[in-house]
Amino acid sequence: MPDVPSGLLAIFAHPDDESYGAGGVMALAAAAGNPVWVLCATNGDQGGKPGEMGVDHSLDPEIRRAELTCACKELGIAEPIFLGYRDSGMEGWGAPEGSLSRAPQDEVVERILTVIRQLRPAVIVTFDPGGVYGHPDHTACSLTATAAYRRAAAEPGGPVALYHQALPRSVVAGMQAMQEQERRKSGEDKPPTEDDVRQQEAFVKLARPDEEITTVVPILPVVERKIAALACHDSQMRGRRWDDPEERAQMERMFGSETFVRVDPAPQPGEREDRFMGLKWGRA
């Protein structure tokens, strides 16, 4: 066991959350010699067929577990750790028994705390309180991971920094413009589903004002790793033309940096960037 906390633990709700939100930071941290882990709270078994409420969204959880294992290999980090809760599904779908959003918060906090004590990371990353777009599992993950961090940080050898992954309003606006451009280019006239509309509205509502973003990490040196990790999540990324140069260039523009709010230690007035405290945690 190390004498001081070391490395990064990313705590997210579903397989693919990690690659979208912090894949670049994890790859950078690993390349800099830090141990890096992903703790995934659910099996992602409601990540199947997209569409309206009432549609069967069930998916073999082993598929999503395997996809996350693949993504971790692409990012150069340790194999994933699963808490094993069921995926709650989107708001309004009706969370099944055994899902994360229905689990007692104290129970989830204790289980996360056990992992933190075993791994002794220096830095923890999770969702911001809005869960980026309000998914019940995302918000539950943010709440319980943040509470576990607070308890662990108060113990000897506990973690020293907490970051919330968050999207600034300017990025959300850019994403929407890019998606509209894609839709027009494809000539698609199919109306968006109710779930799609709800998710887009949540993105806009829950996006953070740009001035609240404390940490912007350029990830272009490892963007190919992030894209490769996303490609592992085939059940979620179908339709992406990974070998199309134009689409790859668009992906690089979309994923050229990752944005966070440093929760602890609290930023000083006017502090804007810390590049994740130098990406060297607990290492000489």
Q: What does this molecule look like?
A:
The chain has 284 residues and is of the alpha/beta class. The chain contains 10 helices and 7 strands. It has a 7-stranded mixed sheet with strand order 3-2-1-4-5-7-6, sandwiched between helices.
Key features of this structure:
alpha/beta; 7-stranded mixed β-sheet
In short, what is this structure?
This protein is α/β, with parallel strands linked by helices. Helices cover 43% and strands 14% of the residues.
Layout of strands and helices, then pairs:
Blueprint: E1 8-12, H1 17-31, E2 36-42, H2 61-75, E3 81-85, H3 105-119, E4 123-127, H4 131-134, H5 136-153, E5 161-165, H6 169-186, H7 194-206, E6 215-218, H8 223-232, H9 234-237, H10 245-254, E7 257-264
Parallel strand pairs: 1-2, 1-4, 2-3, 4-5
Antiparallel strand pairs: 5-7, 6-7
Helix pairs in contact: 1-8, 2-8, 3-5
Largest sheet: 7 strands, mixed
What is the terminal-to-terminal distance? 16 Å
Please tell me the overall pLDDT: 86
Q: Are there runs of 5+ residues with pLDDT below 50, and where? A: none
How many helices? The count is 10
The helix/strand series, from N terminus to C terminus, equals EHEHEHEHHEHHEHHHE
Structural class: alpha/beta
Rg, rounded, reads: 18 Å
Proportion of β residues?
Answer: 5-15%
What is the strand arrangement across the widest sheet? 3-2-1-4-5-7-6
Number of strand elements = 7
- Helix coverage percent: 40-55%
| Inertia-based shape | globular
